[in-house]
Automatic annotation (TrEMBL), chain A:
Response regulatory domain span: 3-126
GO molecular function list: DNA binding
Keywords attached to this entry: DNA-binding, Phosphoprotein, Transcription, Transcription regulation
SMART domains: HTH_LUXR, REC
Modified residues (4-aspartylphosphate): D53
Any Pfam family the entry gives: GerE
UniProt domain HTH luxR-type: residue ranges: 146-215
Organism: Streptomyces longispororuber
Name by which UniProt lists this protein: DNA-binding response regulator
Length: 226, 475
């Protein structure tokens, strides 16, 4: 059971999410409707995880996401799951590159996912456990057109990477793709090799995903014109 | 945005001498935007005569203060500067005309004749800047912006403008009148100056040799003092005469070089303003629709998928047929959400509001079927209207590149220089795009024109196609 602080300004969705979380066996410590209230609730309730909308009052821009980043700056290990209507990779990049020193316990999911109740609750648990979860749709956009390093990946490796980006373990990837875990391990090491990721460099799974998310923010400059 | 006028606009009293006034290249080079809204009211009291700064100074300052201000020096400089300029224009005109007539048999002469007809253009520009020597405000450019690239379009626009022909008239006037005026002032100055320093001359050249009045040599330096007084009077006269003549020149320049507030022009200005208001209202409406969809339909659909999810949970393994129906319903709701999301993005992408132009264009590039390299580097966020228009111009250009050009690669670069956003969209496709035929491009050019920006399309057959967007963004 997780203690959740929920921030969502649409009353209908807030009620729905509270129901969903409660049905999933979690405790909603506070359900608030704007960014300042979210920050206050986190300070008073000390939750296990924060679930927040991107767009919230007072400005109806990205207040929710900004509040989450500020919370991360104060509480480096606070897991945050951001729910969004935007596939735009800039938001996911903003979350992952601004989420403090540690890259663990961050999630960016489209709101559509709440309909797949079991998957959503699974993602929630994984973020709370410190994994990084990025919505497959966002990853798909990133992978659909990529610059040189990713162009070297085979379609199968793309699939594996997309699933890794969702925070799945090798075992879970193997299950989804109905292949053996050994072949997933082989695919993964191929991906790391093609992306020039050093085994000594921490969590390569996260790095592999981040490489693309960060790339998307600063596209390579065009080649010098003749 | 407009710089301050050089000294003397409202405080021309300090007796400044050597460091004089600012040159025509003063600190401010900001141009008055054409017809565009904003300070358009200043000229609307149409028939009132244009104020002339030097005349105001002459009228309102007591003589001793006027004479020791920077005004006389500036007027003399302005008028004397007209001498070489006038002669140069005269020579150039004569050369172009004679050369043109002689060579017209060969055909090259026609180009020279056209040159002679358009000679007022560069001169007008120079004179509008030179006017800054004696006027606090620069004259606005009377010419319309040329919308299309190429010499032919430029010639057509310029030859069709009355401003061009008024400038030609000004050029002839300058060539014929201002050398004479300038020389007269210069001679008067020289004469007065010599009289003022006559005691020194007498002392330096030895007494009894200098004759000021013919036949009467001045015996010693002190005897020349009365002439000094006459010289000083002549200087004062030269100062006032120069002020008067400069004022006449300023009036003439205003009459011939400034944009005319003809009824038609005023009408155009009103239309331009209402067009800008319409565009603003249109944009506000788009944002409202986007907000309504986000707060309404999108949330409802998310809630629907959630409810269907709960139903699936409750059902458990109970009834496979119902479970399948529920899953199908959830899938349909999700597809509706996806379509709605695409629709909303087309109306007004939130990433543009939250993250700015570079991020928003990058997102479009990621979804584009042709590889797009985005290199947009801006020091800060731009005004909303500029960002929105620039964004939709880029998306339209990218869509065209994908649809028509057969390009294998597109490059989008964006920079902010001197307060102007310049975007360049280049593809390596087959070219031959005609902005006159593509309604999309025409619409974008219109949207840009509202912001005083412009779109130029260079697309030779065989490629490459290059679209250039330039928008001023004074925040």
């Amino acid at each position: 059971m997780l203690r959740v602080v929920l921030a969502e300004d649409a009353v209908l969705l807030r009620a729905g999410l509270v129901e969903l979380l409660t049905r999933g066996g979690h405790e909603v410590a506070a359900a608030v409707g704007d960014a300042p209230a979210l920050k206050r609730a986190v300070e008073s309730e000390v939750p296990d995880i924060v679930v927040t909308d991107v767009r919230m009052p007072p400005g109806f821009r990205d207040e929710g996401l900004k509040a989450a980043l500020e919370l991360r700056a104060d509480h480096a290990d606070l897991p945050v799951l951001v729910l969004s209507q935007y596939v735009a990779t800039a938001y996911a990049t903003q979350l992952l590159s601004g989420g403090g020193t540690s890259l663990t316990g961050l999630g960016y999911l489209l709101k559509d996912r709440v309909g797949e109740v079991a998957d959503f609750l699974d993602a929630l648990r994984r973020v709370a456990a410190g994994e990084t979860v990025v919505d497959p749709e966002v990853v798909r956009v990133l992978l659909a057109r990529r610059t040189r390093p990713l162009a070297r990946l085979t379609p199968r490796e793309h699939e594996v990477l997309a699933l890794m980006a969702q925070g799945l373990t090798n075992q879970a990837v193997a299950h989804r793709l109905t292949v053996t875990e050994a072949s997933v391990v082989k695919h993964a090491s191929n991906i790391f090799a093609k992306l020039d990721l050093d085994p000594a460099e921490g969590n390569r799974r996260v790095l592999a995903v981040l490489a693309h998310l960060r790339d998307s923010a600063t596209e390579e400059p065009p080649p010098p014109s003749p | 945005m407009r710089g301050h006028p050089p000294d003397g606009a409202d405080g021309p009293t300090e007796p400044d001498g050597p460091d004089g006034p600012d040159g025509p290249d003063g600190p401010s080079r900001a141009r008055e935007p054409h017809v565009q809204g904003g300070g358009g009211h200043e000229r609307e009291a149409a028939s009132a005569p244009v104020p002339v700064a030097v005349w105001d100074a002459m009228r309102h300052l007591p003589p001793h203060r006027f004479l020791f201000s920077s005004w006389p020096l500036r007027c003399w400089a302005y008028l004397c500067g007209g001498v070489p300029l006038g002669f140069a224009v005269l020579l150039a005109m004569a050369a172009l005309l004679v050369g043109g007539l002689v060579l017209s048999v060969v055909g090259v002469g026609l180009a020279l004749l056209v040159g002679a007809a358009l000679a007022g253009l560069p001169l007008g520009r120079l004179e509008r800047r030179r006017l800054r020597l004696v006027e606090p405000q620069p004259l606005p450019d009377p010419h319309r912006p040329v919308s299309d690239a190429g010499l032919r379009a430029w010639l057509r626009t310029r030859c069709g403008e009355r401003a061009t022909w008024r400038e030609l008239g000004y050029a002839w006037l300058l060539a014929l009148v201002s050398p004479a005026v300038g020389l007269g002032v210069a001679l008067l100055l020289l004469f007065a100056g010599l009289l003022v320093v006559s005691p020194v001359l007498v002392w330096a050249l030895a007494p009894d040799t200098v004759m000021i009045i013919p036949g009467e040599a001045v015996p010693h330096p002190l005897a020349a003092l009365p002439f000094t007084a006459v010289g000083a009077l002549a200087l004062a006269l030269a100062a006032y005469a120069a002020g008067l003549l400069t004022g006449v020149h300023v009036r003439t320049a205003h009459f011939l070089l400034a944009p005319r507030d003809e009824p038609l022009t005023r009408h155009v200005r009103e239309l331009t303003r209402s067009r800008a208001r319409l565009a603003d209202a249109f944009e506000a409406e788009r944002r409202r629709i986007e907000r309504d969809l986000h707060d309404g339909a999108q949330q409802q659909l998310v809630a629907l998928t959630m409810t269907l999810g709960f139903a699936e949970m409750e059902l458990g393994d109970g009834n496979p047929a119902v479970a399948e129906l529920l899953a199908r319903g959830r899938g349909e709701a999700r597809r509706a959400l996806e379509q709605l999301r695409d629709l909303v993005r087309g109306i007004h992408p939130q990433v543009l509001t939250d993250h700015g132009l570079a991020a928003a264009v990058t997102e479009v590039a990621l979804r584009h079927p042709v590889p797009v390299a985005v290199d947009i580097d801006l020091p800060h966020r731009l005004p909303d209207a500029v960002e929105t228009t620039a964004y939709f111009t880029v998306t339209e250009a990218l869509a065209n590149a994908a649809k028509h050009s057969g390009a294998g690669r597109v490059t989008v670069t964006g920079r902010l220089r001197n307060g102007r956003l310049t975007l360049r969209i280049t593809d390596d496709g087959r070219g031959g795009a005609d902005p006159a035929r593509g309604t999309g491009l025409t619409g974008l050019a219109d949207r840009l024109a509202i912001l005083d920006g412009r779109l130029t399309v260079a697309s030779p057959v065989g490629g490459p196609t290059e679209l250039t967007v330039e928008v001023p963004c004074s925040a």
